[in-house]
Design a protein that fits this description.
single chain, mainly alpha, about 80 residues
């Protein structure tokens, strides 16, 4: 299934931002569990965290992200 973004978001991307699409999107990620509020969307920060994930991927990192996701959801932090 293709992954689509609104044109208004894609128009803001620089060439370096497209590297993050080399990995299939998951149900959570570093940005989702690292942001402090629902308005904390800065494309360079998002891409930086995605690249950090890609470069440091491990099963342990995935487990950490899942555990943080549970904490964020239950704590209702940064959720819409």
């Amino acid at each position: 299934m293709p992954y689509y973004l609104p044109n208004s978001d894609v128009e803001k991307f620089a060439d370096r931002h497209f590297i993050r699409y080399q990995v299939l999107p998951g149900m959570t990620g570093l940005w989702q569990v690292s942001r402090s509020n629902s308005d904390d969307y800065e494309i360079d920060k998002v891409v930086s965290l995605d690249i950090k994930y890609m470069e440091n991927w491990s099963l342990w990192l995935d487990i950490q992200i899942l555990l943080k996701t549970i904490a964020v959801v239950l704590g209702r932090k940064g959720a819409y």
